Amino acid sequence: MQQRHFEHAGNLLGPFKGDNMTTRALALIALLVLSGCSTAIRGTVQLVDARQQPIANDTPKGAVVNMINTKAAVEQASASAPVNEKGEFESPKDSITKGVYKVEVSRIGYETQTQTVEVGAFGTKVDFKLRRIDEAKRRSIKGAATDEDKIINPGEVNIQAPAM
Fold this sequence. Notes:
7 strands, about 15% helix, 3 helices, alpha+beta, flat, 2 domains, about 160 residues, Immunoglobulin-like, 4-stranded antiparallel β-sheet, 3-stranded mixed β-sheet
């Protein structure tokens, strides 16, 4: 009966048409390959200048990729991944399900980039180019100059141990 089933496949199976053992082996290999593919968001991050040219003396390592499922419950909605020195990232194992995700990449000194992607059964790949922020446009935050500047309310503090 299986023989007839494969005969309908015509030349698709070619030399394996009658070989039941080979057909089973091919099916097993296909199953193993597909089971190893998990739903994931993976991709690359490249650092570029204002003209979109790669920056040779800086590494994307240290950039962070946040992935937010736009349809999932809050506790299941997000995952994050670091970017390695080659500029590659991949979502943590079993953290991504099918759906629409907002993927955001940020790194100090570079403009944050965001893309919306749809993730299917085999995941998706997304690539980013982070543009360096011009020195003239960077803003710095000045911290407190002295300890006195850090005091918000210099009044009396009354701390008591909790009652047991």
